[in-house]
Sequence to fold (185 residues):
Amino acid sequence: MVNINGNPAKDGARKIVMIIAFKDFKDEEYFVPREIFDKAGMEVKVTSNKLGTAQGIEGGEVNVDIKLSDLNVSEFDAIVFIGGSGAPANLDNQDSYGIAKDAMAQNKLLAAICISPAILAKAGILNGKKATVWTNALNKDAQKVLEENGAIYQKDSIVQDGKIITADGPEAAKDFAEKILDALK
Fold:
């Protein structure tokens, strides 16, 4: 087996792509799951709306392996959207919607945390599905986006409905990653 860079892949390693905003992704939502995936022996790639070094809200830096528009969903077992204030500005677009739709069409595991489940909702893939998303007492906009696009909003911190896993924010990052690993078994 060969990975996307033409290098031999770890025998039997599952492949995960983490989708982050080039600017202002939520650090914990990327770094906590990434460490868990790496420790579990997963092959992890990072994609974003630009190539180069992506910058987290709290200053974390991540090298981007693949430009979002060049991502080939068929090369991965799981597609994971990371949240943060940069997600709506950088990832709420046709490229992301196409990736989400391709993931569902190819029966891939699709996961999103924080604000990014709203991107899945806008892609039309949460219609009739249970899901969660980041909200707070003063801002229920993302919850409204889910409901307006046919999702069945759940107040839980992590929700799995078939091959779709959603989580509501950085506090859920560890359990989110573990749920993804469990679903890949």
